[in-house]
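> Could you send the TlpA family protein disulfide reductase prediction when you get a chance?

Sure thing. Input:
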Amino acid sequence: MALTLSRRHFAAIGAGLAAPGLASLAGFGKSARASDLPDAAGALGEIMPVPPPPFHFMNAGGRRLTLAHYRGEGLVVNFWATWCGPCTRELPTLAALNKVLLPDGIRVLPISVDSSGARAVEPYYAKHHIEGLPVLVDPSSSALAAFHVDGIPLTVLIDRKGDMVARLEGAGDWNTPATAAKVRRLVGGAKPPVTQT
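Output:
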């Protein structure tokens, strides 16, 4: 299930305010377990290939990026935040998927919508031992507006031609053989390994 938040909630989180009921919605205090998540292979909805909406994001150094920077690679693009309980249970499974698929030329791009950007993500990765994933941020949540969604997590698959071919609104367990096989099939199979960034 996706965590649906209004723009007011995003603003409250960004300002460090406690919006009524927000803590329970975001799953604060829940342990980072994937055992209660559905297998992403079954939850992932295939769509007719369509170009994704234009949006940008930044790396930890502040460099502005778009999906065009990864042209020719298969992509699993995930929008998440450190304060989102379902996101934090899902993220380790995405890290595991990334490790499995990098040799096939497919990478996971976890894009955080935390308003404080890399300052929130870098310590979160360190504290929770998230390895092998880049620090990517969209502090203004412009990508969520481009995709016309208010909830996270949201994951989209981008094939090697740059088209969106599947999406999952809500969290899933990406660390399963069935999911890895489905991602390979949907993005266009195995290609030479990509360089980890």
